[in-house]
C-alpha cells in the first residue's frame, strides 16, 4: 500500500498566492519579508542581557528528527526584541541526558532579524522513540533546558501514545495554571488546536492586561506573542514536551474566513496584509519546521504525523481555505446565530477547502493504521438548538457548513479498516460525541468518535445554554462549558481513554484542578462510552 510523505503539500506556496490574487502576491514580495539590512554576525551579547526570555520549545517529532525553537529577545516588547538589525550566532545542543554527556549532538545557526531572531533547528538522524534534552547558547548566555522526544519508527509496534489536547488560552481571562499541570504530566506530546493568542480583548472578563491594543501590524503581533510566551507556566509546558499545533481564528482575527475579514472597511488587500503579519509572527514564535515559513498571507500548517503502527494523526487547517460564513453581507466574514439560510445547501461551501479535503480523503483511504486521529480547530458534531422558530445554529461552526461535514463523514465511512477519532477545540466546552455517517439522520450508523477540549482560560457558555444543546442533540454524550480545562488522551492498540481535566472560571494561579468526566472508545466500536 503506498505511503504518504510526512506533511505532504496540497498546493505549492506560490500557487497559494496565485489563488489569493495579485494583492497577496504583491504582499509576499514586499518589505515585510525582506531580510534586515545589517549583515554583521554578532558573536557576543552583553553579559547582563538574558536573550532567552521567551523560553525554549520543541515540536513536530518524527521517527528520526525533532524541531527545536527559541527566539532571542532580551527586551521582548522592543523592536526586534531589543537586538540590532544583524544576525546573531546561536549554538544548540541535544543529548540523551540532562548533563549533556550522552549522545551529544550540537551545531550552530544564525538567528536572523528578518525572523525576529527566532531559530527553527531541525535535528535529523536521531534514534527513534527516544527522549532527549536540549538547550541553546548565545554569547555568554544559556537557555533553560528543554525536554523532547522522537516518534517511534514508522513500522514499530507501539503500546501507547499519551497526549494533552488543548486550545483557547485568552491571556486576559485567566492564569495559565492548566499549563503548569500539563508540564508535570507524563506525556508524549501536546496537541494544541487553535487560539494560541487572542488579538481581541473584553474588559468585562479581564484579570490581567495584554501589552497593548489589538495588533494591526507585524510588530504588534510579535508583542502579542511575546506577552503569552512570557507567562512562566506556558514556557514550562513548552519546555516539558514536544508540541504539534494547528490554528483557529484568533491568531489573526476572530471569525475570519479565508481571505475575508469581519472588519468593515478593511477590504481584501487590507486583510491580507493583516494576515501576512499574523502568519509571520505565528511562525516566528512556534516550534514548527523552517519549511513552513509563510510566503505572504499563505502558510501550510496542516500535516500528517505517524506514531509507529499505532496511529496516524492529521492536523487540519479550518481557516485559511474556508468559504465565507453563510448568509453574510458580500465581502464580510463573521459568525452569528441564525435559524434560516438558503446558502447552507450549497455543496461548494467548504471548511477545509477542496485541495485539503481531497488530500485528507486520500490519506484516510490509504492509511494502514488502526487508529486515525483528526485534529482540527472546532466541534464537528452538531450544537444546534431546537427552538419554536426552527433549529438555531452558529454559522462559523461546522453546523454552518453541512455539506462539508457530510463529505468528511462520507470519507470516514468509506474506510472501515480503522477507528477514527476527531479531536477539536474552539467552543470552550468539554465534549464527547458520536459522529454519524449522515449527521442529519440519527438512523445512520455511528462512524467516528469526537472529543473536544474546553478552553484553557477563555470564557464558555453558561450551563443553561449547554443544557439546551444536549437536549437537542442526543449524540452529545457529554457537553459542559462552565469550566475551563484540557483533555488527556491515552491511546493503546485496544482502547482510547479521554479524561477531561477542569477547573472553574476564571482560572486562578493556584487553581484546583479535577477530573470532570472520563470516556473511552473501544477498538472496533465507533462512539465514546462513559468510563
SSE order and pairing:
Blueprint: H1 13-20, H2 22-28, E1 56-62, E2 65-71, E3 88-95, E4 105-111, E5 118-123, E6 131-138, E7 141-142, E8 146-149, E9 161-166, H3 177-184, E10 189-192, H4 218-229, H5 232-240, E11 242-245, H6 267-285, E12 303-307, E13 311-315, E14 337-338, H7 354-366, E15 371-375, E16 385-387, E17 390-394, H8 402-413, E18 419-424, E19 430-436, E20 446-452, H9 463-472, E21 476-480, E22 483-491, E23 495-504, E24 514-522, E25 529-530
Parallel strand pairs: 1-11, 9-10, 10-11, 13-15, 15-18, 18-20
Antiparallel strand pairs: 1-2, 2-5, 3-4, 3-6, 6-7, 6-8, 9-22, 12-13, 14-17, 16-17, 19-20, 19-21, 22-23, 23-24, 24-25
Helix pairs in contact: 1-2, 2-6, 3-5, 4-6, 7-8
Amino acid at each position: 500500500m503506498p505511503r504518504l510523505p510526512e506533511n505532504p503539500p496540497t498546493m505549492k506556496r506560490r500557487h497559494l498566492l496565485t489563488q489569493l490574487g495579485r494583492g497577496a502576491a504583491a504582499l509576499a514580495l514586499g518589505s515585510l519579508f525582506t531580510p534586515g539590512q545589517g549583515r554583521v554576525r554578532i558573536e557576543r551579547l552583553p553579559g547582563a542581557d538574558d536573550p532567552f526570555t521567551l523560553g525554549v520549545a520543541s515540536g513536530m517529532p518524527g521517527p528520526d528528527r525533532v524541531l527545536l525553537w527559541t527566539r532571542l529577545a532580551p527586551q521582548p516588547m522592543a523592536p526586534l526584541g531589543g537586538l540590532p538589525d544583524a544576525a546573531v550566532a546561536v549554538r544548540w545542543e541535544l543529548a540523551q541526558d540532562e548533563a549533556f554527556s550522552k549522545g551529544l549532538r550540537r551545531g550552530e545557526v544564525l538567528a536572523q532579524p528578518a525572523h525576529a531572531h527566532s531559530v527553527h533547528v531541525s535535528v535529523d538522524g536521531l534514534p527513534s522513540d527516544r527522549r532527549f534534552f536540549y538547550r541553546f547558547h548565545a554569547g555568554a548566555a544559556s537557555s533553560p533546558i528543554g525536554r523532547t522526544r522522537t516518534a517511534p519508527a514508522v513500522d514499530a509496534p507501539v503500546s501507547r501514545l499519551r497526549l494533552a489536547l488543548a486550545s483557547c488560552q485568552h491571556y486576559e481571562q485567566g492564569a495559565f495554571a492548566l499549563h503548569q499541570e500539563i508540564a508535570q504530566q507524563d506525556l508524549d506530546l501536546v496537541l494544541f488546536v487553535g487560539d494560541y493568542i487572542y488579538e481581541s480583548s473584553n474588559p468585562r472578563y479581564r484579570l490581567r492586561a495584554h501589552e497593548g491594543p489589538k495588533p494591526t501590524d507585524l510588530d504588534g503581533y510579535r508583542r502579542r506573542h511575546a506577552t503569552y510566551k512570557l507567562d512562566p507556566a506556558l514556557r514550562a509546558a513548552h519546555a516539558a514536551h514536544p508540541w504539534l499545533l494547528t490554528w483557529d481564528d484568533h491568531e489573526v482575527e476572530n471569525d475570519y474566513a479565508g481571505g475575508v475579514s469581519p472588519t468593515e472597511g478593511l477590504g481584501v488587500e487590507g486583510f491580507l496584509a493583516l494576515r501576512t503579519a499574523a502568519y509571520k509572527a505565528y511562525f516566528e514564535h512556534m516550534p514548527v519546521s523552517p519549511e513552513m515559513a509563510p510566503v505572504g498571507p499563505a502558510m501550510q500548517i496542516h500535516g500528517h504525523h505517524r506514531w509507529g503502527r499505532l496511529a496516524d494523526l492529521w492536523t487540519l487547517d479550518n481557516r485559511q481555505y474556508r468559504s465565507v460564513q453563510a448568509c453574510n453581507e458580500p465581502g464580510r466574514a463573521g459568525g452569528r446565530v441564525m435559524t434560516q439560510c438558503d446558502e447552507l445547501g450549497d455543496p461548494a461551501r467548504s471548511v477545509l477547502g477542496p485541495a485539503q479535503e481531497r488530500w485528507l480523503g486520500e490519506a484516510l483511504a490509504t492509511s494502514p493504521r488502526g487508529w486515525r486521529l483528526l485534529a482540527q480547530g472546532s466541534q464537528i458534531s452538531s450544537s444546534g438548538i431546537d427552538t419554536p422558530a426552527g433549529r438555531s445554529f452558529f454559522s462559523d461552526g461546522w453546523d454552518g457548513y453541512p455539506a462539508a461535514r457530510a463529505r468528511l463523514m462520507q470519507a470516514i465511512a468509506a474506510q472501515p479498516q480503522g477507528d477514527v477519532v476527531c479531536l477539536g477545540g474552539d467552543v470552550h466546552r468539554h465534549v464527547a460525541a458520536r459522529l454519524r455517517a449522515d449527521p442529519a439522520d440519527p438512523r445512520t450508523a455511528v462512524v467516528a468518535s469526537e472529543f473536544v477540549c474546553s478552553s484553557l482560560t477563555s470564557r464558555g457558555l453558561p450551563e443553561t445554554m449547554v443544557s439546551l444543546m444536549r437536549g437537542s442533540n442526543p449524540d452529545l454524550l457529554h457537553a459542559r462549558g462552565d469550566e475551563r480545562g484540557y483533555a488527556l488522551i491515552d491511546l493503546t492498540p485496544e482502547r482510547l481513554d479521554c479524561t477531561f481535566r477542569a477547573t472553574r472560571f476564571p482560572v486562578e494561579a493556584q487553581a484546583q484542578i479535577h477530573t470532570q468526566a472520563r470516556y473511552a472508545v473501544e477498538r472496533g466500536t465507533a462512539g465514546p462510552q462513559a468510563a
